[in-house]
Design brief:
5 strands; 62% helix; 2 domains; 349 residues; binds guanosine-5'-triphosphate; five-stranded mixed sheet; Alpha-Beta Plaits; alpha+beta
Length: 349
């Protein structure tokens, strides 16, 4: 087990890591946490040196760099381990919140006891011989009460800080399933959903009219040319625009996901193959009809098109075989000249 830090120390690392991650615009997910945690813990100087070199130019640490650091320096910690680390952070936050709340309650109780003692003394003056002692006691009490108010203020602000950290961890959890560039489900979320669909649809009847999970895969045509001609950031803009189009086409019928660089999927949990083909055709046409503008220029670029493959889950088939057939259908569309849809039924595969 690699992470044996005490809760107090983990909390310190967490406090140090999150603001750095936010400043470097790092995606908040378990792998990214693991890299930054390792860095702030100071136990991996080689990783820290590389990370500092990468972020020196102020460009932030992108996803590919994060994964590369993770693979090369933390390879033995699998994503399950990283997930546990992120869950551990959550537990640390819970403990910190509970301790701060308890300390706050105790402080408030002691403060109110002091107040009532002072009031009693003032209401019922003691014998002359004790007056000097009591004056000193009262002066000391005032100091203690001021210190307690200060402590209470600091506890309140720690509670606020803990609340913010907790929100960040929550956000990290949901971002682990969302593609940062397009806002669609990412490959991980897609694979989870695909496996659920395959398990749920395992007993589905075969045949074109029967309903079973269907998969539509689309890949932007000649995307390298878009990047080469107009730059990588315009390429990103195109990916976001295609993702928006897919969201509109999918509506409630399918889960839209980004499953690769310029590869997208629409996963239909239950559909007849001809209906999936219709959705695929709608997706192809919508992308081909869209016009993507460059910055403030009014002219649109060459139109963007996608090649599409469609298939339906066969009885007893694995998620892997299902996905691979959709991929074969997609590449048949590429071979047929692109900007078209190919349907590959399980029987014909
Ligand atoms: N801008 C941008 N480009 C990306 C991203 N991910 C992958 N790419 C680029 O996508 C391009 C894919 O190129 P290829 O696989 O050669 O395919 P293609 O040019 O689309 O050609 P066909 O698929 O055969 O039609 C490569 O240039 C990658 O660098 C990304 O997140 N942003």
């Amino acid at each position: 087990m690699r992470y044996l830090d005490s809760r107090a120390r983990s909390a310190d690392h967490l406090r140090a890591a999150l603001p750095l991650m936010t400043r470097q615009r790092s995606a908040l997910h378990p792998v990214s946490y693991a890299v930054w945690y390792e860095h702030v813990s100071g136990r991996n100087p080689t990783l820290s040196r590389e990370l500092q070199a990468l972020t020196e130019a102020g460009e932030g640490l992108d996803e590919a760099q994060t994964w590369s650091l993770y693979r090369r320096h933390l390879g033995e910690l699998d994503t399950g381990g990283a997930q546990k680390l992120s869950e551990g952070f959550s537990r640390v936050l819970d403990t910190m919140a509970a301790s701060a709340a308890q300390a706050g309650d105790q402080t408030a109780r002691f403060d109110s006891s002091l107040s009532s003692w002072v009031e009693q003394l003032l209401a019922d003056p003691p014998a002359q011989t004790q007056v000097e002692v009591l004056r000193e006691l009262l002066a000391g009490t005032r100091e203690i009460r001021a210190a307690m108010r200060d402590l209470q203020r600091r506890l309140d602000s720690s509670q606020g800080e803990i609340g913010l950290l907790r929100e960040e961890v929550q956000r990290a959890r949901s971002e682990a399933l969302i593609d940062a560039l397009t806002g669609l489900a990412n490959r991980r979320a897609f694979e989870q959903r695909l496996n659920e669909c395959v398990v749920g649809g395992a007993g589905a009847a075969a045949g074109a009219a029967a309903e079973a999970p269907c998969l539509v895969l689309g890949d932007i045509d000649f995307f390298k040319k878009v990047n080469d001609s107009f730059g990588h950031s315009f390429g990103d803009h195109v990916l976001r625009a295609v993702a928006q189009t897919l969201k509109g086409v999918a509506a409630d019928a399918a889960l839209p996901a980004r499953v690769g660089g310029e590869e997208f999927a629409l996963l239909m949990p239950r559909a007849a193959l001809p209906d999936a083909q219709k959705l695929a055709e709608a997706m192809r046409q919508s992308v081909a009809a869209s016009r993507i503008r460059r910055g403030d220029r009014l002219q649109s670029i060459e139109r963007v098109t996608i090649s599409v493959g469609v298939t339906q889950l066969a009885v007893g088939e694995s998620a892997n075989d299902f996905f691979e057939r959709a991929d074969r259908a997609l590449y048949a569309s590429k071979r047929s000249g692109r900007n078209c849809v190919t349907v590959l039924a399980a029987r014909a595969a």
